[in-house]
Amino acid sequence: MPDSTAIDLECINISKTFGDVLAVDNVSFDIPSGSFFSILGPSGCGKTTLIRMIAGFEQPDSGEIRIKGASVLNTAPNKRNVKMVFQHLALFPMMNVYENIAYGLRCRGVAKQEIDERVNNVLDRIALPDVGEREIHQLSGGQKQRIAVARCMVLDPDVLLLDEPLGALDLKLREAMKIELKLLQHQFDTTFIYITHDQSEALVMSDQVAIMNQGRFEQVGTPQELYHNPQSAFVAGFVGDSNRWSGTTVESAGEALKVKTDDGLELLAMPSDSGSTDRSQKVSIFIRPEFIQVERTRDESEHTQPGQNRLTGVVDSLLFNGANSRALVRSPTDQLIEADIVLTGGFEDLKPGEDVQLIWSCEQTMCFSV
Amino acid sequence: MQKDIKRLSLILLFAPFALWITLLILLPHIGMVVLSLREKVAPRVYEYGFANYIEFFNEPIYWNTLIRTGSMSLLVTVLALIIGFPIAYYIAKIAGPRLRGALFLLCLIPLWVSDLIRAFGWILLLRETGVISSFLQWLGILSGPIEMLYNDVAVIIGLVYTVILFMIVPLASTLDGMDNSMIEAGYNLGGRGITVLRRIIIPYAMPGIASGCIIVFMLTAGSYLTPILLGGKNSSWFTEQIYDQFITRYNWESGAAFGMLLLAFTSIVVWLGLKLTGQTLANTVTKT
Ligand SMILES: Nc1ncnc2c1ncn2[C@@H]1O[C@H](COP(=O)(O)OP(=O)(O)OP(=O)(O)O)[C@@H](O)[C@H]1O
Ligand SMILES: [Mg+2]
Question: Is the complex ipTM higher than 0.95?
Answer without folding.
Answer: no
